[in-house]
Design a protein that fits this description.
By secondary structure, this protein is α+β, with helices and mostly antiparallel strands. Helix content is about 15%, strand content about 50%. Bound molecules: flavin-adenine dinucleotide and nicotinamide-adenine-dinucleotide (NAD).
Amino acid sequence: MDDRIFRDAMGKFATGVTVITTDIDGEPHGMTANAFMSVSLNPKLVLISIKENAKMLDKINRSGKFAVNILSEDQQEVSMLFAGQIKEKREPEFDRLSEISVVKDALANIVCNVYGKQVAGDHTLFLGEVEDIVLREGNPLTFFAGKYGQITAPQLT
Ligand code: FAD
Ligand code: NAD
């Protein structure tokens, strides 16, 4: 099967956008990711998928810890920065939570310890056990058909 038709099909699944962060030798590293899901409530587990040539893979293997930062609609530039889509040097703002760097002003910062991992083709799946969470109000950045977008939360009245 052609890669393009696979990507086009996967792109029909609208997602939010996250930045995965971890720290190595006191230095933060971030990577944009939309392969993220909630897995279990007891224990509280989430799943991310990191491609084999991403710098993030070795960094999470070494740190044993990562944060999932769910981006707001105002953070498309943050997503582009951590996807390598902005070429000029930037100094992104990080906060600290449970001894790890997290993305400032994200809708959620979810700090996890690696609970398990599984190599799956050209990606590695990491299960993370959630250690700490910070939440903020706002609307999400979305990714659909290879394009960023926004949604407005439905009014319930
Ligand atoms: P790099 O490519 O070196 O880093 C990414 C970028 O972040 C670079 O521009 C780097 O300069 C910058 N950066 C990182 N840390 C810092 C810092 N501390 N200060 C300043 N800049 C910094 N790939 C996956 O494996 N899984 C996914 O689920 C996934 N989902 C994606 C979803 C979307 C919407 C997009 C656009 C891309 C997705 N990617 C995904 C691709 C992935 O984001 C890129 O391939 C990314 O460049 C890989 O990052 P890296 O760890 O190899 O590091
Ligand atoms: P795209 O058309 O490549 O992405 C559409 C969908 O295809 C994504 O949402 C994802 O579900 C899937 N996909 C894309 N690349 C994949 C990969 N290497 N492995 C597994 N699934 C993949 O959209 P785009 O705007 O061209 O993407 C921008 C860049 O980000 C591309 O280089 C793309 O490969 C990368 N990306 C990677 C992943 C991933 O590795 N899981 C996910 C999304 C985007």
